[in-house]
Amino acid sequence: MNQHGKTGVWLIGFVLGMIGWTGIASGQSAGLPVKGATLPGLVLKAPAAPEACAYLNIAAGKPFSLADVGADLILVEIIGVYCPQCHKQRPQINRLFHRVQQTPNLAEKIKFLGIAVGASPMEAAYLVKDTHIPYPVIADESFVVHKQLGEPRTPFNLVTTRQGQVLWVHLGIIKDMKAFFDTLRSLAGQ
Question: What is the pTM of this model?
């Protein structure tokens, strides 16, 4: 094969690869939850720490669903333990949690829940300790929940009711946490 033939084959391979890559990116978002949708019935493993179960108002040691969580709204954060974007966003999400906790009536209405996709319980526990996550994070070691949610890239955040009605979704870093806090207050009726 001459040089032009090799270049042509390489170019065709490159273009097809880019089409495939963008197809994955756009296809990946096709199955993600959207505002107004209802989540599938997620069955989650209870956090190991009793205080985490108490925060969510769920029974310790038993699987639970979002309907079992003792709040009107749940902010679900899909986290990748090794995701650099998740680590970049971590301080802002932690501050948001504390701000919600310090706002009268908001702490009772909104609970935060992290789901560490592909992480072992040990990796999830290390993530919580290392990045000072102040709310429960459960391991989704076999990607069960991740698949049910359409396999989003991380970070992926959504706000849902206990009944699974999706009120807000965001893929990627949340750039304006003040606006997001205002959105949470509005969704909570404040």
Answer: 0.83
